[in-house]
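To close the section, here is one more complete example, presented without commentary so you can practise reading it yourself. The ligand is methionine sulfoxide.
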Amino acid sequence: MNTKKKEGRYERLYTQLSGLLAKSPDATAQMATIAAILFNKMDYFFWCGFYRVDGDRLIVGPYQGPAACQILEGRGVCLAAVEQQKTLIVPDVHSFPGHIACDSRSLSEIVIPVRDKAGKIIAVLDVDSKELASFDETDAAHLEKIIGLLS
Ligand code: SME
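Output:
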């Protein structure tokens, strides 16, 4: 998808999600709604969902797509994003040391940390694609903005 089309799509989804999430008082319901809308509207999203921080490990939360690993520990892109406290864009998962393959069809990935009001990372949004290099700074900026709707 070219950058212009991608930006337009994300902007429409942000408007839709801000309306839906404003009516939801529950974090799990909000995460489930974000995962469902993104997965169904972004053609290249093969897996889309949340992992919650649980001590040193991550436990899967609301998601859409093929069944995923329930617990991530010790390694992987999601834990690296928590440890480095920043969004990670991985153009080729096979080049990322320690990547955890929940589904061998995933080839590229983006992981965005989710913070509470105090700035502590409490979860991540993880999106996988079946194509190489699907995610770029446009995805990062817009997904970070969408994550900001969580309350
Ligand atoms: N690839 C992730 C694991 C989660 S799945 O992609 C759904 C990782 O390396 O942390």
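Once you have examined the tokens, check your reading against these statements. Residues 47, 68-69, 72, 76-78, 99-100, 102, 106, 109, 126, 128 surround methionine sulfoxide (CB under 6 Å). The chain has one domain: 3-147.
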